[in-house]
Amino acid sequence: MSSRPWFPHSGSGSTQPPTRPSYRPPHLRRLPHNPVVDTISEKLYELKVTTPQEEEIENAYSETAVESTGTDIPAAVASFEDMGFCTTALSDNIRRCRYVRPTPIQRHAIPVAMAGRDLMACAQTGSGKTAAFCFPIISRILVDKPQKTANNYNRSHQRSALARPRALILAPTRELSSQIHDEAKKFSYQTGLKVAVAYGGAPIVPQLRILEKGVDILVATPGRLMDMIERENVSLQNIKYLALDEADRMLDMGFERQVRKIVQQMGMPQPGARQTMLFSATFPAQIQRLASDFLTNYIFITAGKVGSSTNLIAQKVEFVSDMDKRDRLVNLLSSQDSPSKNSLILVFVETKRGADSLQDWLSRAGFPSTVIHGDKLQMERERALKSFRSGRTPILVATDVAARGLDIPHVAHVINFDLPRSVDDYVHRIGRTGRAGQSGLATAFFTKRNAPLAKALVELMQEANQEIPTWLDEFAKNSYGGGGSSRSSHYEGSDFGGHDFRNGSYGDYGNDDYSSQPADTAAYADLYPAANMPILNQAGGHIAYNFPYAANYPVPDPHASSSYGYGYNCGPVVASGWD
Ligand SMILES: Nc1ncnc2c1ncn2[C@@H]1O[C@H](COP(=O)(O)OP(=O)(O)OP(=O)(O)O)[C@@H](O)[C@H]1O
């Protein structure tokens, strides 16, 4: 739905194969403000749209338990009409999106945000979190007084203008930023608000040219935003609304230092003077603790169990040897309805090299496929996603760069060719299917090397009422920390996987997506009680542990996601302590 063409400015929704000879980032494509074009686009949208039916949404989420904690919690609201949005334009856009009824997280989070309260919200993948933060931002900005400068920028600097957005939405990957940008533009269509995007991998100057025209809502990846702030192209002084999508990832070790700097040291108003909203499908308690620095008197909402997958996804786990994986994949791809436009298949692998190699092999075996990972040029990444979305290549081989947030209609099957290290990453990966009330299938290839994940996987599958193979149960019982909850214990620092992370190809958030900053020591406060924290220096592929107690503590892997030595998710968080 994020890509449907009623909104003429959306750059990522074309169903055409990528035949364009020269690359232009989505936000630079022609933006016709032509009422005739708009009407035609809207008609096309009416014809083409295949949104989930109201009953599907209703059935899918009717049993979702929602828990809110905090003080003076605004009551949930059951319909968009009663949310108190200040403009009919927003309501019209919601209608155009064919959102008939709010999802549970929207019912609970939107009233909280509309009341101006800070918010930490955790809801299952595909359950509509983007709208839950976009709608209140749009509505509340419109109620605020207009900014003094006509276009909320000023030319105080000769070389370029200083943009002063009023809302900032941070996201971890370029593709997700671009998707949120498209969504926010759709939602604010004809409201007069200006929405812009800034992410790395694309030339900065064209992005600045857009910002110079004024921006109300800026969607950005941290790296590119910092660049712009440091170059004095963007000021955060006017930020009144801050949203962190995939907030646990944004405060994970790869990003925390940058995000903290942006939020606390670059002129943004302090908590209390701005409204802050954090959203994710997973929220480890340690990350909640870090995040609480950004919030004031906030309300904590969970829709469904924290970090659990949705019951809409049927999960299967197969025991295979590394050598048999490819054969097994081919069997899988051949045994079901052939991958097609309406039945896309997403295959996750661990490394960039592995992704290239598997995609090449699949293509040669006659399976139309494409590949996305952090070493690809941005142009190639966008092209791959388009080709996948359109069904031209209905198989996408991907690293974790595609694991979070991407909303691609018709992904019917997610295959974890390589399982991730953390169950949180597994939750996000499989969450690319089974979205907005639709059902989906997820298959994982489990090898001996995945033993440390067994316990967490079993817990997760049990929570989602999935059938657990006996052999997996055995692995869970015999694996690390048997008997305890592996979702609150660690398996990092073990001999898991035998990966050498100095090769730089382990884990993948790519260039600007995932900051190459050394691990932020503050994130380890719990695990490393000593004041001296580990400094992981990857220069030249050499790892240095500048930490006197390194021998005594498990060493976190800066490439592995959620790879705190102390665990990645505390399971169904009872929303106390950090709420
Ligand atoms: N109220 C609604 N009615 C129908 N569809 C909706 C509604 N809200 C959102 N959607 C659709 O549901 C899909 C998933 O929404 P979204 O991408 O915001 O999920 P999410 O919770 O952010 O997922 P993730 O955790 O993977 O980032 C989108 O296609 C969106 O357009």
UniProtKB/TrEMBL annotation:
Keywords: ATP-binding, Helicase, Hydrolase, Nucleotide-binding, RNA-binding. InterPro entries: DEAD/DEAH_box_helicase_dom, Ded1/Dbp1_DEADc, Helicase_ATP-bd, Helicase_C-like, P-loop_NTPase. It comes from Penstemon smallii. Its EC number is 3.6.4.13. SMART domains: DEXDc (SM00487), HELICc (SM00490). Transmembrane segments: none annotated. GO terms for molecular function: ATP binding; hydrolase activity; RNA binding; RNA helicase activity. Belongs to the DEAD box helicase family. DDX3/DED1 subfamily. PROSITE patterns: HELICASE_ATP_BIND_1 (PS51192), HELICASE_CTER (PS51194). This is RNA helicase.
